[in-house]
Write a structure and sequence with these properties.
Blueprint (H helix, E strand, L loop, with lengths): L4 E6 L4 H12 L4 E8 L7 E4 L2 E7 L10 E4 L3 H13 L3 E4 L28 E3 L3 H16 L4 E8 L6 H15 L18 E2 L11 H14 L5 E8 L6 E8 L6 H10 L3 E3 L11 H4 L5 E8 L6 E8 L3 H18 L3
Parallel strand pairs: 1-2, 1-5, 2-4, 5-6, 6-7, 8-10, 12-13
Antiparallel strand pairs: 3-4, 8-11, 9-10, 11-14, 13-14
Helix pairs in contact: 1-8, 3-5, 3-8
């Protein structure tokens, strides 16, 4: 058994933070001590963990003393603010923000794809973007058989990607619309209930939004394949939790559909969900709360002899964020890389 370690959760009261807490308990993570850290507005609150009420501590310069590992999910500015304090204290930070993902010396890790990259950390390991993780786990088994040359992906991203408050906002908007009232948007830029809109991250100079460019850049880094051509269109949809993606893959030669199904069915972290007679394929409602990424509707691209299409759904808070972070932590403990 690995030796228990001292863990802090930075951003413990958020949607991902509370999921991290649940996963540490359900997966029997070897804990010697657990600190819950958040902003001053959470001071005095408690969160339950394995039957105990743990106090929320306000994060400050001394918060990371006596920590071996910090699971950070409080946003990029917070991660940048405290990264040096964390590493100086001798702890490893697994960061769920975008702050360090594309820094060359920071490993960007999905344990089912590139676990060995975690060994080379210099105190910080980045957790990829949710849509990148979900797609990567689903398509990497195929890339191992025959390198993917091009990816065209459209995402259908739930409110959970914008946090717990966005999920509550969609609920309130739905009630207002059904009551004949005008829905109000405060967390997201536009009403999402009974609506959808292109992803609300900032537009870059090439007219792709930041979320789309994350998928492009992060997938190449995780796969160690800068040559893959990738284009993405990211859309926010009125689903509370779990993202969906329509993915088109192009290979150098034809990729048999049956081989793709077999590879995905055997791969870790994914589950093949297909019932062609009932037209039943992965749905967000089924993926919610699940560890596995659900993959189905795998079919030959009729427009290209070397193309495959597939559909996937995955829990954005779980595998798209908290679970991947905990799996990285487990990897560090099991292999002695802390």
């Amino acid at each position: 058994m690995p030796s228990p370690i001292r863990v802090a959760i930075l951003g413990a009261t958020g949607a991902v933070g509370t999921e991290l807490l649940e996963l540490l308990a359900s997966r029997n993570f070897p804990l010697a001590d657990l600190k819950l850290l958040a902003s001053p507005r959470s001071a005095g609150k408690t969160l339950e963990f394995q039957g105990e009420k743990l106090p929320i501590q306000v994060v400050d310069g001394s918060a990371f003393k006596d920590c071996d590992l910090v699971l950070a999910s409080a946003g990029g500015s917070t991660s940048k603010r405290w990264a040096e304090e964390i590493t100086k204290a001798g702890a490893v930070m697994v960061d769920n923000s975008s702050a360090f993902r594309m820094v060359p010396e920071v490993p960007l890790v999905v344990p089912e794809i590139n676990p060995e990259a975690a060994q080379n950390h210099q105190g910080i390991i980045a957790n990829p973007n949710c849509t990148t993780i979900l797609m990567g786990v689903a398509i990497y088994p195929l890339h191992q058989i025959q390198p993917i040359q091009r990816i065209v992906v459209a995402t259908y991203q739930s409110a959970s990607g914008a946090g717990a408050m966005a999920m509550e906002e969609v609920k309130h908007q739905s009630r207002d619309i059904l009551a004949g009232k005008t829905p109000q948007a405060e967390i997201l830029p536009y009403p999402l209930a009974f609506n959808l809109f292109p992803h609300n991250s900032p537009i870059t100079d090439n007219h792709y939004c930041e979320e789309e460019m994350k998928m492009v850049q992060e997938t190449r880094k995780i796969f160690a394949a800068e040559e893959i051509r990738i284009t993405a269109t990211c859309v926010r949809v009125p689903v509370l939790r779990a993202h969906s993606e329509a993915v088109n893959l192009e290979f150098a030669t034809p990729f048999p559909v049956d081989l793709a199904k077999t590879a995905i069915a055997k791969a870790p972290g994914v589950k093949l969900v297909e019932d062609w007679q009932k037209n039943y394929f992965p749905m967000p409602i089924d993926a919610t709360g699940q560890d596995d990424v659900l993959v189905g509707r795998i079919r030959q691209d009729i427009s290209h002899p070397n193309g495959l299409d597939l559909w996937l759904c995955g829990d954005q808070i779980r595998k798209g964020a908290a679970l991947n972070a905990v799996q990285i932590a487990e990897l560090l403990v099991e292999r002695g890389w802390l």
